[in-house]
Amino acid sequence: MEKVRYEIDPHNRLIIKKTGKKTKLPRFRQVLNGCFKVADDNTLIYHIKAPIPEDIRAPYQIKLRGKWSLTKNHDLMFTLDKWRRQTFGDQLTLQGDIIDVKKNSLLFAVTTRDKDGVQSIYALKLQGSWQADKNNRLTFRVKKGQHKYDILTFDGIWKIGKNYQIIYQYKKAQLARKLKKIHTLVFKGYWDIKNKARISYVIDRNTNSVFNFKTSLGVFKDDYIKYELGIGLSYKPKPIKRTITIFGTWKIKKTVGLVFEVEYERKKVHTIVFGAKAKLTDKDTVLFRLKNNINRDIGTELELSHQILKGDGQAFLRLLKSERESAILVGAGWGW
Questions:
Q1: pLDDT given at position 259
Q2: Which residues are 295's β-sheet partners?
Q3: Separation of alpha carbons 264 and 318, rounded Å
Q4: What is the pLDDT of residue 200?
Q5: DSSP code of 322?
Q6: Could you tell me which of 222, 292, 220 has the C-alpha nearest to residue 250?
């Protein structure tokens, strides 16, 4: 049976090559003018612009199935599945730039030229969710079906911006000028703490777009929370250290629990909610053994002075003093 092989030229156009039954030598090689699209199920489609060359039999649309990945140069790679008219493992590398990251999608800009040399730019949108891998690298899970996905791994260092957002930058050579341009991706979300030795950056909890980073145990003080972690990169022998420090204000709210209020961009406030087991110390402070919202210990303690506790905190303090040596649970549903 005649085999079909696909490639991509430097202008992101699809190339089709056909070989005979007994030889791998190409019978012909044809560049197809057109553009790529991404279907709802994240399969790759190539729309061929008319007219189609007379010496090639091809539909106006070629639907390709395979696996998405991200190259070291931050281009999109699509490794084709095997089917009876296609050789196994053909890799199509789309050259372009990641221009935006949303809560459930990634937008990739592709530059192409038509047969007359006219240049144009279009965008491909992949649907999925953002998560961290075991090495604390950022990844995008391209949705392929129920419980099926491909993983794009961002094998670089991320940092925290002044408004506590996650920022990822990468350098990429511009082919025309042979200069390297810095591309910056900003992830919009908020920080949360639900588990021991982990801190999470929530982009969209409803679709599980959450970076759950493995860390050391957190340090909790009267005006900040600090975690340390390592980012393991494929080209580094040791993890890159990263410190996450979030400043905010502690409060006790009777209907919620112990909360840490953090001010983000445009003065938007988000609260990290904790449960806690609290008791007085002999230093006129309150010692909180912190728990998450389902009463699981997160492995750390917080000591606050009486002066910090205001509003509902003062009522809680009076109750705590009336109990003398007893400890009191604070948190939603525990009704202190």
A1: 92
A2: none
A3: 32
A4: 97
A5: H
A6: 222
